[in-house]
Amino acid sequence: MSDHWQYLVVLGLCLLITLPLEVFGKGVYRQPGRLLRAVVPFAALFLVWDAIAIAAGIWWYNGKYITGIELPPRIPIEEVLFFLVIPVCGLLTYSAVSAILDWSRRR
User: Fold this and answer.
1) Does Cell inner membrane appear among the keywords (predicted)?
2) Do 106 and 99 contact (CB within 8 A), yes or no?
3) How far apart are the C-alpha atoms of 98 and 25, rounded to whole Å?
């Protein structure tokens, strides 16, 4: 595997590993409007923050581990996906743990 795909592969594995958690509780993917309202505003905020840090030379990416595909203003596609994928994985985990704890309290 080319090193340029490592960041994307890790993000894909994060989604794959947390996918089974969807079966617990009300689900995350089964509530797309709620999911978008929870993730998109924060992703946008962090993308602006990233863009400022990149432009100021405070933050950069090792070209060895990214594809080189960038979105304006020079943010690697992997970073955009990071701000979407990781919160989704967190929400899946939180939802599953909450559902399991609720079930265990009812016993």
Assistant:
1) no
2) no
3) 8
